[in-house]
Amino acid sequence: MESVSVVDAEKEFRKARKELDEGNVLAALACLERALKVNDDIRWHSCLGFCIAKERGHVTRGLELCRAALAHDPENTDHYLYLGKVFLVSGNKVDALKVLRQGMQMGSNPEIEQMLAVIGARKPPVLAALSRDNLLNKWLGFVLNRLGLR
């Protein structure tokens, strides 16, 4: 009887992934919670971490779940993907890019490639002698970008 429950849990997890692919994070969260009630598989925790961060705003808990899954299975690129997404939810673009690039080093993942393309690379500062955070660099970058010169 237990094996039937595990099979049901895996079906719920596949359904959750499908919902995520369609952009329905809330439905994915519900499916994941049902699946994890039956079979607490740590490989699914990174997906749960993203859903919790996105839907409930529990970014710290989401980061914990993603990092635990990553520590358990560091070669699974999906864990890097979801950890990067949690960082983006928290507004931490620098760490998101770092994690996504680490994921690409582990292996090819089309979703990570797509996210990296969407986020994009930063342009070098206008005045290289000044830091990127310098007000003058920010202002010049903004103005030149608006004028179409950058």
Give the strand content: under 5%
- Domain unit count: 2
Arithmetic mean of pLDDT:
91
What is the chain-wise order of helices and strands?
A: HHHHHHHH
- Label the structural class: mainly alpha
Any idea what the CATH architecture of the largest domain is? Alpha Horseshoe
C-alpha termini separation: 64 Å
Account of the 3D structure:
- The protein has eight helices and no strands.
- The protein is mainly α.
- It folds into two domains: 2-119, Alpha Horseshoe (Serine Threonine Protein Phosphatase 5, Tetratricopeptide repeat); 122-150.
- It is elongated and about 60 Å long.
- 29% of the residues are buried.
Provide a compact summary of the structure.
The chain is mainly alpha-helical.
Task: Jot down its keywords.
150 residues, mainly alpha, Serine Threonine Protein Phosphatase 5, Tetratricopeptide repeat, 8 helices, 73% helix
Secondary structure blueprint with pairings:
Blueprint: H1 2-21, H2 25-38, H3 45-56, H4 59-72, H5 77-89, H6 93-106, H7 110-119, H8 135-147
Helix pairs in contact: 1-2, 2-3, 3-4, 3-5, 4-5, 5-6, 6-7
